[in-house]
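Issue 218. Parser rejects a valid record. Input:
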Amino acid sequence: MKKLLAFGLAATLSVAGMGVLAGCSEGSDDSDEGSITVGLIALHDSNSTYDKNFIDAMREACDNKGVELVIRTGIPENQTCYDTASDLVDQGCDVIFADSFGHEDFVLQAARENPDVQFCHATGTKAHTEGVANFHNAFASIYEGRYLAGVAAGMKLVEMHEAGLEADNYDADGNIKIGYVGAYPYAEVVSGYTSFFLGAQSVVEEETEISISMEVTYTGSWYDEAAEREGANTLIGRGAALISQHADSMGAPAACEAAGVPNVSYNGSTAEDCPNTFIVSSRINWVPYFEYMIDCVVNGEAIDTDWTGTIATGSVVLTEFGSAAAEGTAEKVAQVQAQLEAGTLHVFDCSKFTVNGEHLTTYTADVNTDDAFTPDTEAIADGIFEESTHRSAPYFDVRIDGITELNS
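Output the parser choked on:
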């Protein structure tokens, strides 16, 4: 049986593909807000840490705003998504949000056919180019959260190095080996694992005379517990001293707990199920966006075409630190977070990494996505790769030195 994250839903969702009507009208300061209904289309259900993060946030936002909520879980990235969106329109939803990248084309189709309903979509790329007034994309600068999680990982690696690691935890150059379980070799995953790596590397290089290297393995699925466990075990078998992930089940954290390998998870705390190995988790907090989205609909105001949340907006957060975190981790992370917020530190500072031994000075990214994924936008300015600036969804797909993809 799958183990869930430590925090639970306020109410149990129905089986995949079925809807839940959540009445959240109590506690509203605006009596008009109770007259609208929000629809949520989720790729999986709350067993997926990714979907659970959206579901929990949407419930909280709707409760805070006193509006009705209809949830549809287990909606695949195919025509079923369009059918579900159309059904939610028929049920009277005023705004509909879909949570997975592959939902975009089907939600966009529904938006074109229902101009009086607002449609919002996470991780998408087309709203800023399609020009459909009632279709909107949203994401957050989660790469900053992953960088901070990497800082926490780096603190742990320094502690482990000083205590004495096994020989196979170092690569041929004497660097500490770590691992990362990813879903797909997409920009969103590459951006995430690179920012995590850079955060960990910054601490290790600052505190020791060595650096780190990282191997990445892909599962080919956003949610596959067996594949994620297998991926983590493969990396551990290859000497990874610590594992992180961009995949949505408990597979990798469970493998780390069984092997006694420290783990940085994603989208929620695994402290209860992994009491000996959990360090921290980063996640997007979707409550600020959902409340903003609801307010716009209630007030008849336009929703941003392409919205990017940040640490400053409360949209990028870390969980509590687990028992595996090294001493001084909270203080170090707070120090680095202050630098990020002040703009004195940039995650993708091109002076901090190389590609084939060289620092990048120019890079054309795929921002205005077409069917061929043609690079179209200069992404580097003043030596900084400007992630999530030209659109909300990540477009950093650079393979930097020190990271090896095992099965891309």
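Fixed in the parser; the record now loads. The domain at 19-140+286-309 is CATH 3.40.50.2300 (Rossmann fold).
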